[in-house]
Fold these 2 entries.
Entry 1:
Amino acid sequence: MQITTLIEPIAGRGFRASTRNPIEISVEAESRDEAIRQLQATLRARLADGSEIIGVESSGEELVNFELEDEPNPWIEFAGGLQGHPLLEEWKKAMADYRDLVDREEAERDALREANAS
């Protein structure tokens, strides 16, 4: 999992590493690398007690359950595996067409909700 982190120098004191979303953490250390290590350790400690970072849809359905892992992404080995496949372009077009359909349906539902709310 990646969490956007601000690394900033602190005049005469080293570096601060901090995050805001999805969890607020701030640490200070003498070096940039040490600040990052401390932030990672603090995040792991916060999640070690069973706490979770998840994404939740407004309907209340759980979308994603993130786990903090040091392991490499297992999907990397498959990246680019479809290059040159005879159905690749057709598959991409089908995905784009489906996404357009879903977007249109969502826009229609939103418009209907707004009309009914008025």
Entry 2:
Amino acid sequence: MKEDKIISQEDIHLQKEEPLVKKAKQRVGFKIHITIYILACILMWLFWFFIFRANNLEQPACNAILFITLAWCICVIAHYLIVYKWDKTYVEKEIKYLKEQQEKKQQQTEDYPNQDKL
């Protein structure tokens, strides 16, 4: 039973580094995403150049590939912003907002402790 309550130094170390591991996984996920995006775009445009352009199917294929490239680019930009820019600031703002709300509730209960009885 005592063994269940004992926390090893390794467990404490892992708990401290858990946010870093999560952030690292998110960044690696983004790097994989952008690599796949670049390779897929190159492949699609090469298909268009060598296959569709040569067979006079230039316009419809070009429009489709252009749409896919731009739509996917928007997704990659959003992924970048979430992983590198918005993650910390939005979480911190939300925590600050929730703490303020909690403090307001505590202040109201201190100011009017018997209000619940009414």
